[in-house]
Amino acid sequence: MTDARYPLDGRLPDMLRSGKPLRGLFNGLPSPAIVEMCAYAGFDFIILDNEHGSADFGVTEHMLRAARATGIVPIVRCFEPDLPRILDMGASAVQVPMVESVAQAQRLADMIHYPPVGRRGSAFSTRAAGYGAFGGAGHTQRSNDGIGFIAMIETPEAIAVAGEIAAVDGVDAVFIGPNDLAHAMGYGSDWNAAPVQQAIEQGLKAIASAGKCPGIIALTPADEEKYGALGARYFANVSTSIITKALAQAASGGKEAQMRY
Q1: Which of 162, 164, 227, 239 could disulfide-link 27, Cβ–Cβ 3.0 to 4.6 Å?
Q2: Which helix (H) or strand (E) is 27 found in, with range?
Q3: pTM as predicted
């Protein structure tokens, strides 16, 4: 485990290279308590969703503190302009939506890593560097070794070059977003449509063939089994789906409720 003195938890790249399945979940709820609950439940990672969630930067930083305190690896899904601030807060990884080309993936990888690996700007007064307590060359090396980059591919154009995106130096995993992919392919929210599933299969196999970790949403054990057979190892559920299902079952006197995304 990463030295607990450091704010930055740098375990994720090794976890993604381990060949073992990893289970986590997207969380768009602005609550450090939810982060703690997910850690105590035994999830490997949590994706703080700054694409669709409502947390501001201050709350996001508190959620990162909660993750570090409880031992769950915190990933932040965010847009490109937010990368510098999210990384300086101490995220273990960033998951960037709508990556569609090798050039885009390389640009993002360069933004995430310090020279000589990338082109990230240095600042050691931030939480990630212990507000200066752990800055300098040591922080630079820990960051380059321990911060992960997960590229999200969500269009047919991205699926077509999934292997090439995965092969970019600095990309640790590639995550297929099935809902946006289904919409982009003209199937609305029906990601179980046969052509969408074929595209997902194509993408997962290409990512695995490139030697990187394939990721996908898995709402059920059956999803995990199906996609795991195609190479996926980075499985994400959704906190609100789990909570809503549990609440619906309680409200109905224990009747089985459907998982909704």
Answers
A1: 239
A2: strand 22-27
A3: 0.97
Nearest by Cα to 36 from 74, 5, 7:
74
- pLDDT tens-digit series, residues 139-153: 999 999 999 999 999
Among 227, 99, 118, which residue's Cα sits nearest to residue 162?
Answer: 99
- Is residue 52 annotated as a catalytic residue, yes or no? yes
Which 8-state DSSP code applies to residue 229? Answer: T
Distances (CA, A) of 1 to 14, 20, 40, 158: 11, 16, 17, 34
End-to-end, the C-alpha distance of the chain in Å comes to 33
9 near 67, Cβ under 8 Å? yes
| From 52, 62, 139, 183, the catalytic residue | 52
Contact, 173 vs 150, CB < 8 A? Answer: yes
Q: Print burial letters for 204-220: b (CB count within 10 Å at least 16), e (below 16).
A: bbbbbebebbbbbbbbe
91-103 residue pLDDT tens = 999 999 999 999 9
Residues 6+ apart with CB under 8 A from 61: 89, 90, 127
Amino acid at 91: A
173 alpha-carbon distance from chain centroid: 9
